[in-house]
Amino acid sequence: MTKKMFGLGAAALLAVGLAACGSDDKAGDSTSGGGGTASVGESVDYKITGIDPGAGIMEATDRALKDYDLKKWDVTTGSGAAMTAALKKAYDAEKPIIITGWTPHWKFAKYDLKYLEDPKESYGGEEQIRTIGRTGLAEDLPEAHQILSNFHWTEEDMGEVMVAIQEGEKEDVAAQNWIDANADKVAEWTDGVEKVDGDAIKLAYVAWDSEIASHNVVKLVLEEMGYKVTLTQVEAGPLWTAIADGSADASLAAWLPVTHETYAKKFDGKFEELGTNMEGVKIGLVVPAYMDIDSIEDLKE
């Protein structure tokens, strides 16, 4: 959407005290998709809980329904926040649920979850989060172009910011705390770059916890270098459109080669790839570990 879940120490602390939810007495429960009277589909009303309809993961999920011939199944649309709220409600009650999921994300630290195997590779394999910019960015804002091109970090780095925000910290405060604790990494991004005097730059991002974390960090870094930064939250389609038509300058939120493949092809030649800011990310269908199901193929009766 190999290492798929961020394994940082701070995130691991969130998992302390959570129930393992994998006890044998759940294995045959009809609500956990085991050997009871109800199938997995019946136990969740043939519903996959998704996010916003413009997200690439939703397109991949529609493809999965066709690839695995899951004619009875539907995907609900909403938001990332609505999806995690539904997950929490089901998880707390140890009820079955199937969601569209991705890593890095704080939910893998807070809950015991697993990806369903995808033998038909509807969701593709390992992905990257890439930074993209409008054409002409290098000429118009060369210092910002260099910083954005240099920007890269790990799942552990991002996880620290995501977990802090999830625990109630304000986004800009969580970002600043990470910057203060990682001055050496920030120095690599700004190495050799001259400060500017109030130049404006507009960054577009989708409302995924991962992208909220990265864009708030980079916003503060650019502001420290003298830029006046505007963050604009949009869905995936408008994000790519904004980069292509120049109404936004850059985004750190291009998930490729699969999740945003449609947009990358649609706007080919109308944007610039500035570099990969994170390796080894993943998307797919996710369930609580207590559910007795391992593959998307198991969803078909």
What is the element layout, followed by pairings?
Layout: H1 9-15, H2 40-43, E1 47-49, H3 56-67, E2 74-76, H4 80-92, E3 99-103, H5 107-110, E4 113-115, E5 127-134, H6 137-140, H7 142-150, H8 155-166, H9 171-181, H10 183-190, E6 200-205, H11 209-224, E7 228-233, H12 236-245, E8 250-256, H13 261-266, E9 271-288
Parallel strand pairs: 1-2, 6-7
Antiparallel strand pairs: 3-9, 4-9, 5-8, 5-9
Helix pairs in contact: 8-9, 8-11, 9-11
Describe the structure.
Strands 3, 4, 5, 8 and 9 form a five-stranded antiparallel β-sheet that branches. A two-stranded parallel ribbon has the order 1-2. The chain has a two-stranded parallel ribbon with strand order 6-7. Helix 8 packs antiparallel against helix 9 (171-181), helix 8 (155-166) crosses helix 11 and helix 9 (171-181) packs across helix 11 (209-224). The longest helix has 16 residues, at 209-224. By secondary structure, the chain is α/β, with parallel strands linked by helices. The chain contains 13 helices and nine strands.
- Supply Rg: 20 Å
Mean model confidence by pLDDT? 88
H/E element order: HHEHEHEHEEHHHHHEHEHEHE
Helix coverage percent = 25-40%
The N- and C-terminal alpha carbons lie at a distance of: 26 Å
Care to give the gist of this entry?
With 301 residues, the chain is of the alpha/beta class. The protein has 13 helices and 9 strands.
